[in-house]
């Protein structure tokens, strides 16, 4: 079985798939290497024979994780590396190595699925948008604070914005003007995300008319999907690209 890991800035998403048909055996989202190991080991009868990783963490953190995996499962993890060109997509950065690997892989995955022009939106700790033209040219993209960063900046830099996670969740039953601090902040940040996403779609329309696909991924995709009815929500888009970048045979 193949262990796949997407190491983001706040969380690690993992899943275990069968080698032959890519059927998903299990998966989850964790906030530490140790919890990751515990969760994988808790899956009965899993024999990890290969591992592929995408990481936007430091080289040291990624090395520590690959060592742990070598120790626990006796496999050498394959770590996805940047490339100037792959699977028909040309990296649009001046220095291709600077483009975040999560963005690059999501872009590869999206172009593979769309087989044409696409806009890729990934809403995690950071909110990211990337544009790929029909000929596979990656045109670049945008990076903004995502929901967790917007909310924590407000909490950190003000005296009187304080609330707990449970009330934050309750506040999102509607997006009407907030009548409490928690509603005002949570709804305001969601509207920021929706505005970000709409602006990207407008830009794609200016370039490509109606001839493009929109892909939506990342933990906070559900917060904007109603304002983007034509978007394809693909939670595992980074894993689609990861399998392309690290084919393991
Ligand atoms: N089960 C979950 N565990 C943690 N966060 C979740 C979960 N489901 C949804 N989320 C939301 O997902 C967001 C984090 O998204 P994601 O996991 O894509 O971030 P990340 O990969 O760490 O960040 P980035 O991609 O910017 O590096 C959080 O704001 C949280 O609200
Ligand atoms: C933007 C983040 C932090 C989002 O995970 C990641 O893609 C990253 O570290 N990128 C490097 C900077 C860049 O993409 O220009
Ligand atoms: K990510």
Explain this structure to me?
The structure is a single chain. With 249 residues, the protein is an alpha/beta fold. Helices cover 37% and strands 24% of the residues. It contains 7 helices and 12 strands. The protein has helices spanning 33-42, 59-73, 101-114, 147-156, 165-171, 181-208, 237-245; strands at residues 2-7, 12-17, 24-30, 50-55, 78-79, 85-86, 89-90, 118-123, 126-132, 138-145, 213-217, 232-233. The strands form 3 sheets. Strands 3-2-1-4-5 form a 5-stranded mixed β-sheet, sandwiched between helices. Strands 10-9-8-11-12 form a 5-stranded mixed β-sheet, sandwiched between helices. Helix 3 (101-114) packs across helix 7 and helix 5 (165-171) packs across helix 6. It is globular and about 55 Å long. The two termini are 13 Å apart. The model has no long low-confidence stretch (mean pLDDT 96). Bound molecules: adenosine-5'-triphosphate, pantothenoic acid (PAU) and potassium ion (K). Pantothenoic acid (PAU) binds next to helix 3 and strand 9. Potassium ion is lined by residues 6, 8, 102, 124. InterPro entries: ATPase_NBD (IPR043129), Type_III_PanK (IPR004619). One of its GO terms (biological process) is coenzyme A biosynthetic process. Its cofactor is K(+); NH4(+). Belongs to the type III pantothenate kinase family. Its EC number is 2.7.1.33.
